[in-house]
Design goal:
Helix 5 runs antiparallel to helix 6. The protein has a single domain, classed as PK beta-barrel domain-like (M1 Pyruvate Kinase, Domain 3), CATH 2.40.33.20. The chain has an eight-stranded mixed β-sheet. Strands 6-5-12 form a three-stranded antiparallel β-sheet, with no helix packed on it. The protein is α+β, with helices and mostly antiparallel strands and 212 residues long.
Amino acid sequence: MPRLISIQVSLPRVFDAPEKPWRTGFFKEPVPGPVVVTRTGIVGDGQADLVNHGGPDKAVLAYSAEHYPEWRAELNLPEMPHGAFGENLTISELTEAEVCIGDVWKAGEVVFEVSQPRQPCWKLARRWNIRTLPARVIETSRSGWYLRVLQEGELAVSTEFILEHRPNPNWTIARASDVLYHRKDDRELSRELAFVRELSMNWREALLQRTG
């Protein structure tokens, strides 16, 4: 049974850097919970870039705990902690090959709906000083996924994730990412994915732009 391994939150902070200071909420810190999950995210968490992050479609970021052994070995970072990819929730026994767009997952009091794959940005590269890391995330499909909050409530570490509804079993997170990044000329697939009702608005708009 999938289970919540860790919870991470952080409010935006300013970090010094040789080139120039930068403000980000990427450096998530573990909390044991319980935390309060609302329609717009976890209380105590925040984003610096509210144009590209946050909002109801991207209220909470989830990431697979199963990826960490691979990343630690590949990047030679044996102490890489959960939350290293900026996620709020690190979940066991789920990967992008198994989670689907529109999945409804119940975790304790909270009910989540999967809205889109996570698109890695430059902040991931800057956090770990590995310029190629976002591209490697895309290449390996170890992206993580965003969650809407359908029912608010408290959430704590070790809570089980129970699948309640799967309306789009053909649209895994991995397949959706493949269409966005690697099948840009496939208008038919782009249109099919764009009309998945539960897909986030920004992904729908990006896909429809391809179809003319």
